Structures are given as structure tokens and as C-alpha cells.
Amino acid sequence: MRTVAVILAVLIATGFAAKFQSALPTAAPGKMLPMNILSEIASRIAADGPLDDIFDLFNSLESQIRNEQVQHDELYAKQQVECSGERSFREKEIADATNAINLAT
């Protein structure tokens, strides 16, 4: 009876763990999450690895962040141009509608 209870408890815990894991943010391929970075650093320190490996990890992270920032800046500039065009289009539409109302009254 105890074995059945233990197996049932393990299955329930596994189900909750799987549900919890799916709720966590996932990284795109090649993107490092903060928890992954910290665990990688901890494992390299625990293995008495060279500090150059840790510095390389930080340099890799820095270049990844800089690349993401460049992509973000490009998207921002593109969206600003689109918004500017949309705004001028809407202002023209409002002016046309205002003129139509003035002519009708």
C-alpha cells in the first residue's frame, strides 16, 4: 500500500512539475536565460575550469544582447516610419471629413 501511495505521489509531483515547467519562459534557440547562465557559471566554477571560459561566456552574452538591441532598434525605426505615415494618412482623412461636414452645412 505504501508503494502505491509513493508511486501516486511521484506521478502527481511529476504532473505539477511538468505544468510548472511549461509556465516558465522558454528561450529561443541560442538565447540564454539568466538561470541557465548562472548554472553554467556555477558548474564551470565547481569544475575548477579556467576563468577564461567564464569570461568567454560573459562576452558571448554581451554580444548576444548587443545583437538583440540592434534588431530592436531596427524594428523601432521601421515602426516609427509606419506610424508617421499612418498618422499623416489619418490627419488627411480627418481634414477631408471636416471639409465635407463644412460643405454640407
SS-based class: mainly alpha
Number of strand segments: 0
How many strands, which pairing sense, and closed or not: the largest β-sheet? none
Order of helices and strands: HHH
Determine the mean pLDDT: 80
Percentage beta strand: under 5%
The number of helical segments is: 3
Low-confidence stretches: none
Distance between the termini: 88 Å
Please give the share of residues in helix: over 70%
What general outline do the C-alpha atoms trace? Answer: elongated
Radius of gyration computed on alpha carbons = 28 Å
Written account of the structure:
By secondary structure, the chain is mainly alpha-helical. The chain is built from 3 helices and no strands. It has helices spanning 2-23, 34-46, 51-104. The longest helix is centred in the C-terminal third of the chain and has 54 residues, at 51-104. The protein is elongated. The model has no long low-confidence stretch (mean pLDDT 80).
